[in-house]
TrEMBL record:
Source taxon at top rank: Bacteria
Organism: Nocardia terrae
A GO molecular-function descriptor: amino-acid racemase activity
Family: Belongs to the HyuE racemase family.
Protein name: Asp/Glu/hydantoin racemase
Coiled-coil ranges (or none): none
Pfam families, A to Z: Asp_Glu_race
Length: 253
């Protein structure tokens, strides 16, 4: 099995955090291809920034269609679920994977985020995926970030405290450490948090492996079939080719 893991942010530092946690999480028989968005923003905090990231992710998926599955490695799952329409392999976002992992381990969960600005969008994502009634809280760092690649070092103690408060004050049965900049932190702090702690990257990798292993088949019809044929303009060569291939394979509704 071979998975494409896409960092929708342009930060190479974050990509290395993603790569490290993905390598720790992946099965020995699974190969990883880890890539960084070619354009966009350093880290995604808003709906509009997610919109910008979505095309960058689509372009990378289109360039690497020789994989068995794709992991979109940014919390908020930019471009999801629309990216499922592009290729005939499973495309898994770390948000949905983390929510599913949390739901399997407890009744209510809390999300710990790196930015206060990001929380409204995260709340919408939780509701979009159908987990709104199981969200205990979203707690976030209030201070400005010194650098996106150093969040774990700069805010380790406050992040742990936010998680502990989510359990004690909000009734969380599970805590999700949200966002690729926190990749791998769950392993380091789980002894300090009295409930299961979910890492989005780890969840995304393991769920992608599971869904690929199910071999359920592609979307040939329904709402996730390929977009119907119509005139297009201004798309990159790889993206144009991927859309045309999906349509030629008969995956249009």
């Amino acid at each position: 099995m071979r998975l494409l893991v896409v960092n929708p942010n342009i930060s190479d530092d974050v990509t290395e955090l993603i790569r490290a946690e993905a390598m720790r999480s992946v099965a020995p028989t699974t190969g990883l291809l880890v890539r960084t968005a070619a354009h966009g923003v350093e880290y995604i905090e808003t709906r509009f920034e997610a919109l910008l990231a979505a095309q960058a992710v689509a372009e990378l998926i289109a360039e690497h269609r020789d994989v068995d599955g794709v992991v979109v490695a940014a919390f908020g799952d930019p471009g999801m679920p629309a990216l499922k329409e592009l290729v005939d392999v499973p495309v898994i976002g770390i948000t949905e994977a983390a929510l599913c992992a949390a739901a399997l381990q407890g009744r209510r969960f809390s999300i710990i985020a790196i930015s206060d600005r990001i929380t409204p969008w995260y709340r919408e994502c939780v509701e979009h995926f159908g987990f709104g009634n199981r969200l205990a809280s979203i707690r976030s760092i209030k201070q400005a970030l010194r650098g996106i690649g150093s969040v774990q070092d700069d805010f380790r103690a406050p992040l742990v405290e936010l998680a502990q408060r989510a359990v004690a004050d909000d009734g969380a049965d599970v805590v999700i450490l949200a966002g690729a900049p926190l990749a791998g932190l769950a392993r380091d702090v789980m002894a300090e948090i009295p409930v299961p702690v979910v890492d989005g990257i780890g969840a995304g990798i393991r769920f992608a492996e599971a869904v690929v292993g199910l071999a359920s088949g592609p979307h040939r019809a329904g709402s996730f079939a390929a977009p119907p044929p119509k005139p297009r303009r201004g798309l990159g060569t790889a993206l144009e080719s991927a859309i045309a291939a999906a349509q030629a394979e008969g995956r249009t509704a």
